[in-house]
Amino acid sequence: MGLASGAQRNRTGGRTIALLGLLVLLAISIAPVHAQADIVAEHTYTYSQTATFTLTFPAAAAPAAATLYLKVGTFTQPYATPVVNNVARQERNLSEAPFPPFTLISYWWEYQDAQRQTHTTKKQQFLYEDNRFAWETQRDDNITLHWVAGDKVLMSNALDIAQTAIVDIQKTLDAPVIDSATLYIYPSLPDLQSALLLTGYEWAGGKAYPEIGVVLLAISPSSEAILKMKRDIPHELTHKVLYDLTGAQGYAAQPTWFVEGLASTFERSPDPAYALALQRAVQDSKLIPMATLCNPFPAEADRALLAYAQSQSFVRYLQQTYGWSKVRQLIDAYTDGLECSTGVKQTLGADLTALERDWRVWMEQEKQDNAVSATWTYVATIVRDLAPWLILIGLLCVPACILWVGTRFGR
Predict the structure, then answer these.
(1) In terms of Cα–Cα distance, which of 169, 178, 190, 294 is closest to 233?
(2) 150 and 217 assigned to the same domain
């Protein structure tokens, strides 16, 4: 009886010790989980001003430092950050180092605990949206529209214009169907320009980010809103279709005059400013050489407007002269990496300078009524191009003529 009771006590004691050991192991394994749960990663930002990233630790578990990993696009940058009062805080000045507008930003933290074990927080993402405005949203298939001012009927028209434009552009360029596009319509041009200020395009009335499928527009809810939508929405969506057709590298290889000329050609509401700028430049002999517009466009607003006007007219000339099939081949030529003038030479059989001269003749021919006038226009264009050389030859011949006259009449 006594022996049995002792054995039973031993078995009971063994089970108790085993249970206590299991509880200790469980506590050890759970402790880091609780510690991780108490660590909070947060972010805040004010568009185009400041972005702040913080990692807050429990007082007893705060390390001396942590590292923020910030991924913008495909580039990841580490930021070593001291922990002060249990918080690692990293601030980014968005006026000096801006994020690409309306793109996804990813970030996570890494730190070592007291046992020198490395921990990585869960990756977080946020859309870097212009949070100065309260955006409303409307969707139609693969098009998402955000706006600030205007009613839903007007925005439904905008979606219809976008859908029609995409079908037209894709059919004309024999391009694949885009996966999605997001349009942000600002209530005024100053509002959009303030958003574009850091991109170097503060004069622009619209901007496309085709790599992320985002289009920014300035369209006030006025009586002219529909006309502006028919002009600006197809223009910017052309960039998205062309980007998807050629890929990032191929899109970057397209000359600026070609890309913007194509986009302007698909506009369904003519911009009178283009025609006026082009007319004045022709009259004043101040057209910008097309070779200069291969890349990039001028930064000044008035010359940028002329660059757009010339590009639209030049691409329209190419399309009417050679057809859309040749324009499509030209896209492929530039996608393959051919240089600006080499691309047109290989595809159209003429270099850029010759095409530019023919385009200028074509512009003036549109104002003429018969072939005789067109011939004189061609001759006048050539004479105008050769004028500096003719003047130089004349100046060189003057001394010889004077000498000849003096010799002949001095006898």
Answers:
(1) 169
(2) yes
Cα angle, residue 73 at apex, residues 71 and 74 outer, rounded to 5°: 80
Q: What is the per-residue pLDDT for 381? A: 47
CATH number of the domain to which 175 belongs: 3.40.30.160
CA 365 vs. chain centroid, Å, equals: 37
Are the CB atoms for 326 and 347 separated by under 8 Å? Answer: yes
Residue 52 and residue 90 share a domain: yes
Closest CA to 344 of 241, 252, 243, 257: 257
Q: Is the pLDDT of residue 243 over 60?
A: yes
Q: Which of 365, 179, 167, 182 is nearest to 266 (CA)?
A: 167
Given pLDDT bands bounded at 50, 70 and 90, which one contains residue 336?
A: very high
Burial of 346 (0-12, 13-18, 19+ CB in 10 A): middle
CA quadruple 127, 129, 135, 141: dihedral positive or negative? negative
Amino acid at 125: Q
Judge if 117 and 52 occupy the same domain. Answer: yes
Tell me if 378 is assigned to some domain: no
Structure tokens at 243: 């980007």
Sequence-distant (≥ 6) Cβ neighbours of residue 389 within 8 angstroms: none
In angstroms, rounded to a whole number, what is the distance separating the alpha carbons of residues 263 and 239?
Answer: 7
Q: How many CB atoms lie within 10 A of CB 369?
A: 8
Structure tokens at 17: 């010790």
Query: Considering the entire predicted model, what is its pTM?
Result: 0.75
Q: Give the confidence band of 74 by pLDDT, cuts at 50, 70, 90.
A: confident
